[in-house]
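Changelog-adjacent note: as of this version, every example in the card shows the full chain rather than a window. The one below runs 71 residues end to end.
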Amino acid sequence: SAAVSAFLKDNPISYPVTVGDQALFSLMDEFGDTLGALPFSVLIDRQGLVVERHWGELTQAQLDELLETYL
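Full-length structure tokens:
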């Protein structure tokens, strides 16, 4: 959004900023992001059910372990 870009130009920060509309927040709610935090990862099984939620950075080793558990 233009307002966010203008703010960041006047107030530089050292971390990424994501801008989303209400649809993004609704989707986060649907997948169980009760913290409203990013990064947020969801593992969905073959039946379409959310089987894992992870807030924060997800390493390759953590992802491999999760996938091995559910494959």
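Structural remarks: The first helix runs from residue 2 to 10.
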